[in-house]
Write a structure and sequence with these properties.
Family: Belongs to the aldehyde dehydrogenase family.
Low-confidence stretches: none
GO molecular function: oxidoreductase activity, acting on the aldehyde or oxo group of donors, NAD or NADP as acceptor
Keywords: Oxidoreductase
Protein name: Aldehyde dehydrogenase
Strand content: 15-25%
Mean pLDDT: 97
Helix content: 25-40%
Largest sheet: 7 strands, mixed
Number of helices: 15
Number of domains: 2
Shape: globular
Organism: Streptomyces mashuensis
CATH topology of the largest domain: Aldehyde Dehydrogenase, Chain A, domain 1
Amino acid sequence: MTAYGHWIAGAWRTPEKGHYPVVNPATEQVVGEAPESAPTDIADAVTSARAAQSGWSRTPPRERAAVLDRIADVLAERGRDLTPLLQAETGATTRVTSTLQWPTAVDRFRRYARGATEADVIPLAPRPVRASPLAPGGLIGAAAVRRPVGVVGCITSYNFPVVNLAGKVAPALAMGNAVVVKPAPQDPLCCLELGPLFREAGLPDGVFNVVTGSGAEAGQALVAHPGVDMISFTGSTAVGRQIAESAGRSMKRTLLELGGKGAAVVLGDADDEAITSAIGAVGSVWSFHSGQVCTAPTRVLVHRPLYERVVTGLQHYAQSLTLGDPVENSTIMGPLISAAQRDRVEAHVARARAEGARVVAGGTRPDLRPGFYAAPTLLADVTPGMAAAREEIFGPVVVALAFDDEDEAAEIANSTPYGLYDYVFGADTARAWAFAARLRSGNVGINTVQRHPEAPFGGFKHSGTGRDGGSFALHAYSEVQSLVWSS
């Protein structure tokens, strides 16, 4: 069993406060020990990043691009060796780990290797300006130029630790920033393993630093540190509010990707194809990382004449899933990340049952030991006011609600504090497109849960602030400077 240090200034740093155990959610065994941060560890990491950022920002974009390309090469070559560790600390199934963790991380570094050389100057047409008490008149030229923010604190989520890290770090590095990463406490080990790999790829020491901790203290110290210019966070809305408040005291830039309560709306014109697509999409709440996905369509809103058909289809889907050891190829659903998260999911189901919801599938703990397993659960006859219909559960629970017309559907869909990702299913895509305009959501999928890698990603309302994805991420990790001159 490995006891890790922090990765600071291109080297392992022994933690002042010792270590804490990282537990495999499927076996409940300790897979490694992560370093516990003290304030001095956070300060050292920020100091390291500040010292390295100036030189990295002046590195020619093509050279930054070459480093990011080499990082992608190293991850593609060596990621397979780390797959067992990644699977052990996350509890993700073999299918999810092998297809959506390392390959997606590689793709993101490749994308932002190209991004490093994207044009960062927006020329503005010269304008004749009259003389004033301020300055003589003349033909005035201008340009808007993207500049690095500086030091970015990246606080990542536990569901896809490496992928989420890549989505933040790659565009930040492409723009010439240095980063201090604070992974989620549940599964930080592979994030720590990236330090030596990035160094091997030629990233200068100090540009990438990783610090960890078992509680909130490490993240709080990173957010509050005066040497950090921006915080990029993925996680719960409750923590996002705390970060926004703390960052606001020092006017730090923030990029916050927070909670979701996605609605999949099945319109009244849905034909067999659209209904089948909707059932498969909503079923991904169970089959894709056990519902631990912020964009998951955890609410299915169905036109009343189609309601029981969709509920029955989802019931059959849930009952067909194989739960068990995530390393087995036949397993579709693995465990939740922790006992605490499993207990939270079960409490939500119990409350929904007490409020009058009908448990169509699941609802009881699977007879699987050891491991933090929760059954794929479908709750029908749910009303918009129930907690299960309003609060993010972040587990394998779907709630089904009926509506009578599109006005009611839009009202229900928009009735939660969240607005991250919604979905519309119907035979007439023009009608679905028009309905999407009524949804207070940063993203809307029409007859699909597939993502577009270049589309801006972020939420409305309590689902966050800012956008990343594609070239939008380059804007997120940069400041805009206006240059003005007299022609």
